């Protein structure tokens, strides 16, 4: 069983930066850790993910201005974003999943990010 708790959201001005944190309890060594987001009226979408080997994946919309990282010792995964845009406004969710989802697929409660002047 894995539990995920996000933090670090809030209001940000366009062009600003933020760092989202996800603290995990339980063994996530074999899990792909990811950040997803869901804007009002839209489907949840992948923002970035990092696999157990450290390979990262980013959505085209955030590529070049986002960095995902994981700290195995602290059992955390972080997402840093800069040059934020109003279209980045969404609830951001932390996810931990095995490659075979039926082996484990867990979500945090989400943290709101609002980009507005």
Short description, anyone?
By secondary structure, this protein is mainly beta. Helices cover 0% and strands 51% of the residues.
Helix content: under 10%
Average pLDDT, rounded to a whole number, is 96
Oligomeric nature of the chains: single chain
User: How many strands, which pairing sense, and closed or not: the largest β-sheet?
Assistant: 7 strands, mixed
| Sheet/helix structural class | mainly beta
Give start-end ranges of low-pLDDT stretches: none
The backbone outline, from C-alpha atoms, is globular
What portion of the residues fall into strands of 2 or more residues?
over 45%
Whole-number radius of gyration?
13 Å
Series of H and E elements: EEEEEEEEEEE
Given the structure, what is the number of helices?
0
The number of distinct β-strands equals 11
The separation of the N and C termini measures 40 Å
């Amino acid at each position: 069983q894995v539990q995920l708790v996000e933090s670090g959201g809030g209001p940000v001005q366009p062009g600003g930066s933020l760092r989202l944190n996800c603290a995990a309890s339980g063994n996530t060594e074999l899990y792909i850790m990811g950040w997803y987001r869901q804007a009002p009226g839209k489907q949840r979408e992948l923002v970035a993910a990092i696999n157990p080997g450290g390979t990262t994946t980013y959505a085209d919309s955030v590529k070049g201005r986002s960095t995902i990282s994981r700290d195995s010792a602290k059992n955390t995964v972080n997402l840093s974003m800069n040059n934020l845009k109003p279209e980045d406004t969404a609830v951001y969710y932390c996810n931990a999943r095995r490659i075979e989802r039926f082996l484990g697929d867990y979500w945090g409660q989400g943290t709101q990010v609002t980009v507005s002047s």
